[in-house]
């Protein structure tokens, strides 16, 4: 499995179709996405944008005194922890990691 953490670009169709259900992405959900609180999630990547099957997700509480910067830092911390936990779960379930070159490394 290949992890894409907070990737802000759309992956090419060749990359996602060549390795179906092998890419995992973590990212955050905003309140406008339908969640009552900000949240983080990990999902498989498909040809759409944030449309792959969700593997895990959790809300990130807004605490008294939070401003945009402190909430953003908490979201990033939760996102990293969720990514590591989800990848560990996939490996424990027998899904071995696969090395796939990134677009940057093939230039």
From TrEMBL:
GO molecular function: phosphoribosylglycinamide formyltransferase activity
GO cellular component, as recorded: cytosol
Pathway per the UniProt entry: Purine metabolism; IMP biosynthesis via de novo pathway; N(2)-formyl-N(1)-(5-phospho-D-ribosyl)glycinamide from N(1)-(5-phospho-D-ribosyl)glycinamide (10-formyl THF route): step 1/1
TM region positions: none
UniProt keyword annotations, A-Z: Purine biosynthesis, Transferase
Pfam families, sorted: Formyl_trans_N
Biological process, per Gene Ontology: 'de novo' IMP biosynthetic process
Biased composition (Basic residues): 1-10
Limits of the Formyl transferase N-terminal domain: 42-87
EC number per UniProt: 2.1.2.2
Domain of life: Bacteria
Gene3D superfamilies linked: Formyl transferase, N-terminal domain
Region of interest (Disordered), ranges: 1-28
Name of the protein in question: phosphoribosylglycinamide formyltransferase 1
């Amino acid at each position: 499995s290949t992890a894409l953490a907070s990737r802000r670009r759309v992956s090419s169709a060749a990359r996602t179709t060549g390795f179906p259900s092998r890419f995992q992405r973590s990212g955050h959900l905003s309140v406008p996405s339908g969640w009552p609180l900000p949240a983080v999630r990990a999902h498989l990547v498909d040809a759409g944008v944030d449309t792959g099957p969700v593997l895990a997700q959790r809300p990130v509480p807004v605490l008294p005194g939070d401003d945009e910067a402190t909430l953003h830092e908490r979201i990033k911390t939760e996102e990293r922890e969720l990514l590591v936990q989800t990848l560990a779960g996939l490996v424990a379930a027998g899904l071995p990691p696969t090395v796939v070159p990134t677009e940057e490394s093939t230039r």
